[in-house]
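Re: the request from the purification team.
They wanted to know what the chain is likely to look like in 3D before they choose a buffer screen. I agreed to run a prediction and write the result into the notebook, where they can find it.
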Amino acid sequence: MTVDNSRCSIWSREQDIAFENALATYPEDCVDRWEKIAADVQGKTLQEIKNHYEILLDDVSRIESGYVPLPCYNSSFDRSLCHDGGGERTGKKSGVSGRLNSESNDGGKSTKLEQDRRKGVAWTEDEHRLFLLGLEKYGKGDWRSISRNFVVTRTPTQVASHAQKYSSV
């Protein structure tokens, strides 16, 4: 496998948080959006910011397409769906950006939940109402808190995607 070093750089947790906050602060139609985001993320160049965003888009696409297994969260979610029979996590860290490997240890069998996730299950009115309540409490960009405390049936990535579809948010 060839690694494109021009797209790969080490990001600290603080830089990732600054990046996420800047993405939420400067909408897509913002003039000089990328320059403003780069100014908010200490130690990163404009090109590194753009590359990081492209990797993020690719990760979101892979998650929403069902190529990456959902992580286990501390909730009422059936934890047996997150592990194979041997107790091993089905999603293993790999690659430069620490993405989850898309290979599954289930021998080709898919659960109903996994099949629904690949199809993309529409949000219910109740989930959307909870999303709006979470948005009111935590604000735009804190998708993890909204997912953990309000829309517990959805991942932070799904919450962020839902927010993007409702651009008035």
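For the purification team: The first strand starts at residue 93 and ends at 94.
Please add any questions underneath this entry.
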